[in-house]
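Service request form, structural biology core

Requester: graduate student, group of Dr. S.
Request type: structure prediction, single chain
Budget code: on file
Notes: please return the result as structure tokens.

Sequence provided:
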Amino acid sequence: MADEPETPGATIEDYLLEDRTFPPPPAFKAVALVVDTTMYDAANEDFEGFWARQAADLITWQRPWDTVLDWQLPFAKWFVGGRLNASENCLDRHVEAGLGERVAFHWEGEPGDTRTLTYADLLAEVQRFANVLKGLGVEKGDRVAIYMPMIPELPVALLACARVGAAHSVVFGGFSADSLSDRINDAECKVVVTADGGWRRGQPGLLKPTVDVALASTPSVEHVVVVDRIASSGGEAEVAMTDGRDHWYHELMAEAATECAPEPMDSEDLLYLLYTSGTTGKPKGIMHTTGGYLTQVAFTHKYVFDLHPETDVYWCTADVGWVTGHSYIVYGPLANGATSVMYEGTPDTPGRDRFWDLVERYQVSILYTAPTAIRTFMKWGAAEPEKHDLSSLRVLGSVGEPINPEAWIWYHEHIGASRCPIVDTWWQTETGAIMISPLPGATTTKPGSATFPLPGIAAELVDNDAEVVPRGGGYLTLTRPWPAMLRGIYGDPERYRDTYWSRFEGRYFAGDGAKIDSDGYLWVLGRVDDVMNISGHRISTTEVESALVDNPKVAEAAVVGAKDDVTGQAIVAFVTLRGGVEPGAGVGEELRDHVANKIGKISRPKTIVFTDDLPKTRSGKIMRRLLRDVAEGRELGDTTTLADPAVVEEIRKRAMSAPSDD
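Core staff response, request fulfilled:
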């Protein structure tokens, strides 16, 4: 007999406020570190003064600010009256300090070609390309679209835009022509910077043809700059060039002047736009300005990763097309004078040890990657990393989505050799920088918990009536402004207010649910719309995924809710098994029982679909939207951002024949 609904008309709030521990860590290990509350105390006593000290210590200002914070809810201005240039902060000041020969980027292409760019090299390249942009008519206040693979010319383009005072709008290289044209038109970009293509899983993926299709409906674009990536590295790429509009990067650079002074920018001048998906179908142009953003990304990169720029080699495995790449490949590391690794391709090309080979060869000491990547490595097993000397690693990081305790523990034990602290970070495109995270040496960690808000950040959980929830579950809100916060949605201030500040008066809320355990540790659950309604019970997809991955036969799992005539929604689990484990009805039944034992019978998946891989973006995020389409038999949505579009088609075939637990 089926369980009776606890509350027939229950809402998400009922789930959030249930008194249960989340998640139940099956092999809990606390990593005990020295607790030092000095920085937190200083920030709590005077958060404006705290951020002012960070801005003064970490950033070079051409003109000091008059006012630290002007807060007219929901609009904030930080370091009002101050002037600076982001490019100058990332490059010139390091070269002038005698650090020109320090490596900025160890770059490696997927075919194996390499480049090493010092800070002096990068400054020279950026100045030339800044002059190229000026020669194409780009002026302070203009917008430039960037649609490129992970090659050195990508950060060069960002920094050159910042140098001349033009806002850049980076569009991830996996987006379709329609997505690209939508973003170009919304920002009214004057120039597009792209490449003939990039290497992906041993094959060239062409970008310029997509640009050509997009530009058929983008009247604002006057020029296109094209980097020769594929042809120059031995691949075949037929590129159509439109006379007068399209230009080869290398030809323009050969003629460009070598010096370009950085444009003085107001602290609140727009640094970049980055578009996120909107529920209305129209992408939201998230606005980030210069002074506050640069201050917080420099601060978080320095302290969250315990950075020592004179000795550390840092690798953030994200793509610059996402906010992680903006903040923690380009602006944060370069502002701090760090040495970074930048890689073009996938971690399994040409072999599954490519990732660990890079760590060993470049002596990476700080590794920042996604939970989905970690779970993929779990699926492959420890044999690949064990082939390599990973002793250079001293800090590990997790980004992109909540990490389940099992993946955290595997990461800690097999990659960090149980000695590296893990910083599991919560933040968003909208926040611009890390908001909730442990600090190495200052926080005792729990596997899967983001722990506590960073110094200077105020976060609270509230219930549906905006009452503060000190323990248990609730909506994750921010109660005061922070320097790197978005300044609005481009061209639509009311949408900004309605999207982020209307649900709870005076509080920023972007849709995440969280729980605070009995020790005060914060566990991010993910978006509240990732909560399933099963016979009136509210169950988190993350909770079920964590229970599945707790089984030693499971490498990775993604869970969605599908419409069900009886229960409202049914739990559908997509499961990747560890190497050597064969899928079958017996394994499916074992996993259903395992979930029931860990959480309760109501959480038992109705359908388990075994798959060799899950649909992921190139940055490693699982696209659960596509899994919901599969589970409910709908036509698939846009798959252009997938690292391997064939994966979802194979999943759909298997889902059609997967048995259900009726």
